[in-house]
Amino acid sequence: MMNSPALAISGVTDPGRVRDHNEDAIRWDTQGGWAILADGMGGHLAGEVASALAIETIAGELERLQSDGGPVPEVLQQAVAGAGRAIHEQAQADIRYHNMGTTVVVTLIHDGLLSCAHVGDSRLYRFNAEGLTLLSRDHSLVQELVDEGFLSREEAASSVHKNVITRALGLQETVEADLLQVPAAPGDLFLLCSDGLTDMIADEELPLYLANDNLDEMARELVAEANARGGMDNISVILVRVGEQA
């Protein structure tokens, strides 16, 4: 039986100012302690199909985990892999969805820990008294160039290739999610977001928008600021605040 803390969760997804439809999808379960964010890509409507299918598939696995139990990191990885297969199979079966795919970041808070599986460039941050920490690592071309010393982080932020991802659900039959696990202490605030937010607001600016006690207001303010700066892509955020042990 997993021991879950008291949580508060809020989220917003918005098409932005340029795109005519929203290919992002978000879902969470406060009682279950989990949150999922996906940023779809593909031809007409295909990105929406991919992100929705990812959310549905992973949510189903997390709901089963709540009732059946199991090792959390392995369940998260299997859930993401299953979503990737489902998207790939649908893309192969219907020419309209050929080459569709999606990023995903999924978190589950349990037993004093946050477990996360992620694929693509949607991100997970933690904000607390020690400041803001980027926990995930982008699966992107510019991140690889930064890792290899060919680009600085400042150069990467302005690169024309910054949105080229190297891993996504659905583009291949199999995909492996990166896993991470960190302590989740009372007062910690976790931010899941698509690149529609982080392309508009730099990491060093994010803490300015994360000090509000009201999660609903904070989520809306983040999206509003990204839109005020151009809203060049769909924008999605989920905020998860850890309370005292239930």
Q: Could you walk me through the main structural features you see in this protein, from its secondary elements to its overall organization?
A:
The protein has 246 residues and is an alpha+beta fold. It has a single domain, classed as Phosphatase 2c, domain 1. It is built from six helices and ten strands, in the order βββααββββααββααβ. α1 runs antiparallel to α2 (72-93). The longest helix has 23 residues, at 46-68. The two termini are 14 Å apart. The model has no long low-confidence stretch (mean pLDDT 90).
CATH superfamily: PPM-type phosphatase domain
Average pLDDT value? 90
- Overall radius of gyration: 17 Å
Low-pLDDT ranges: none
Structural class: alpha+beta
CATH class: Alpha Beta
Strand order of the largest sheet: 1-10-9-6-7
List how many beta strands DSSP finds: 10
Q: What's the structural domain tally? A: 1
What composes the largest sheet? 5 strands, antiparallel
The fold-level CATH name is Phosphatase 2c, domain 1
Helix content, binned percent:
25-40%
CATH architecture: 4-Layer Sandwich
Q: What string gives the helices and strands in order?
A: EEEHHEEEEHHEEHHE
Estimate the strand proportion.
Answer: 25-35%
Shape: globular
Number of H/I helices: 6
What is the terminal-to-terminal distance? Answer: 14 Å
